[in-house]
């Protein structure tokens, strides 16, 4: 028995433009096509396709998406249309963080967090007059800062070791003479 399936196909194309979206709608409009940029920044095409089973529907959707000429499929997600309708509105929201919370986590001021956002060092979305930050982006920034600090400590530590090691013909300090 043929059923309807909703399949999302992620293509290896970043930086989705309005032309890309129009291209998808023009070529796959009969398939209920929707195109958008997903959280990872890739083009994601959602199609409603018929199939004897989910496997056949996913293959059909991948073939249609690949024929767009906008990139190769790199990931898929499929479910029956009935299940999608049932789950509609139950989509998981990614964990979000406010600017004051990010400032607490980073140990800095709210203004410093806004500066990081405006300079592109922290990914955020402006909503009205405030920003919302993906918790994943904040975690990544913390990891980057930690690894950068560890590299600096390592470099400082090696310079300190160099200063403490004896170097052949260097003059002996007063303390060293007193010990000998």
Strand-helix topology:
Elements (H helix, E strand, L loop, with lengths): L2 E12 L3 H11 L5 E4 L4 E10 L2 H13 L6 E8 H7 L8 E3 H8 L3 H9 L5 E4 L2 E5 H30 L9 H6 L1
Antiparallel strand pairs: 1-3, 1-4, 2-3, 5-7, 6-7
Helix pairs in contact: 4-5
Please identify, by name, the CATH architecture of the largest domain. 2-Layer Sandwich
What can be said about the biggest beta sheet?
4 strands, antiparallel
Question: What's the Cα radius of gyration?
Answer: 27 Å
Share in helix: 40-55%
Summed up, the domain count is 2
Structural class: alpha+beta
The total count of helices amounts to 7
Biggest sheet: strands side by side, in what order?
2-3-1-4
CATH class designation of the largest domain = Alpha Beta
Percentage of residues in DSSP E strands: 25-35%
Q: What does the average pLDDT come to?
A: 83
- Give the number of DSSP strands: 7
**Gap between N and C termini:** 96 Å
CATH fold name of the largest domain: Alpha-Beta Plaits
Order of helix and strand elements from N to C terminus: EHEEHEHEHHEEHH
The rough form would be described as elongated
Weakly predicted, low-confidence segments:
none
């Amino acid at each position: 028995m043929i059923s309807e399936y909703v399949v999302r196909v992620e293509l290896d194309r970043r930086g989705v433009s309005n032309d890309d979206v129009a291209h998808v709608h023009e070529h796959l409009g009969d398939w209920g096509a929707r195109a958008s940029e997903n959280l990872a920044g890739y083009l994601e095409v959602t199609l409603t396709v018929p199939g004897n089973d989910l496997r056949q529907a996913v293959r059909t959707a991948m073939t249609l998406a690949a024929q767009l000429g906008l990139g190769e499929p790199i990931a898929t997600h499929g479910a029956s249309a009935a299940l999608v309708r049932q789950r509609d509105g139950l989509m998981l929201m990614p964990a979000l963080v406010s600017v004051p919370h990010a400032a607490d986590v980073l140990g800095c001021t709210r203004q410093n967090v806004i500066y990081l956002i405006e300079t592109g060092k922290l990914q955020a979305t402006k909503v009205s007059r405030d920003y919302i930050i993906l918790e994943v982006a904040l975690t990544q920034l913390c990891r980057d800062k930690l690894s950068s600090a560890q590299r600096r400590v390592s470099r400082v530590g090696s310079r300190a070791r160099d200063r403490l090691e004896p170097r052949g013909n260097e003059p002996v300090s007063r303390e060293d003479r007193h010990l000998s």
